[in-house]
Specification:
The protein is an all-alpha fold. Helix content is 73%, strand content 0%. The protein has one domain (3-228). The protein is built from eleven helices and no strands. The chain is globular and about 55 Å long.
Length: 229
């Protein structure tokens, strides 16, 4: 399984997740099934972003691209809020989380120790500002970027899930109310199976700009359909 395959799986599972979020009632079985499948998506995107950090020829340009797309999507969310009064500002923009994680990795690998310390407020800020996945997502990107060992990546994900999901660790400690996610987030572990199959090859087609455009494009399409129906 090459990088293109991982990207396509991440994109497909993301669409499935968002279809449930936009169109299905929260109590339906189909909603639960689609959301379970959707837990795969972010883990794969986080993994590929961390790998891209080490492979890109220019990290600053990489950061600039991520930042620009984050701004474009945020502008769309603000516009949608003004039209529909449905407030998803900062909360439904995965590029803010991806940008924060990438920036955190960039700072972590700086020789200046004072720059490394700035990773901490980035993680805290992502949580306080209610970015999509918050501190959990930013930490995932950083931890994936620290090690490419697949077993270590699996252990990193298990650790994050134990800390941020309300069961079983937090509930055992009597702290389940501090869990950021319900138990369904444990299905994110399914993504590790695809990562173990990954052969580190790029694939026949890169389609780099397609995946940048795909995220805002599919969200726009879904909400246009919702408005029309």
């Amino acid at each position: 399984m090459n990088r293109l395959h991982l990207k396509l799986i991440a994109a497909l599972t993301m669409v499935i997740d968002h279809v449930a979020f936009v169109f299905f009632t929260r109590t339906s079985d189909l909603y639960s099934i689609f959301r379970i499948v959707g837990r795969i998506s972010f883990v794969l995107f986080a993994y590929m972003l961390a790998e891209g950090f080490h492979k890109t020829k220019d990290v600053k340009k990489y950061l600039l691209r991520m930042g620009l797309f984050a701004i474009i999507i945020e502008a769309f969310l603000i516009g949608y809020y003004l039209v529909s009064n449905d407030n998803m500002i900062l909360q439904f923009n995965i590029f803010l989380t991806l940008f924060s994680g990438l920036l955190g990795l960039y700072l972590f690998y700086q020789p200046n120790q004072y720059l490394k310390i700035l990773v901490i407020p980035i993680i805290i800020g992502a949580e306080l500002l209610s970015f999509s996945y918050g501190a959990y997502g930013v930490l995932m990107i950083i931890l994936f970027g620290i090690s490419f060992n697949k077993v270590t990546n699996m252990l990193h994900l298990i650790f994050l899930n134990l800390v941020f999901i309300n069961v079983p660790l937090l509930s055992t400690l009597g702290l389940s109310e501090y869990g950021k996610f319900p138990a369904i987030q444990w299905y994110s572990m399914m993504a590790i199976g695809f990562i173990f199959l990954y052969n580190f090859k790029p694939g026949k087609y890169r389609l780099k700009w397609f995946f940048y455009i795909f995220y805002p494009g599919h969200i726009l399409l879904l909400y246009l359909i919702k408005i029309l129906i």
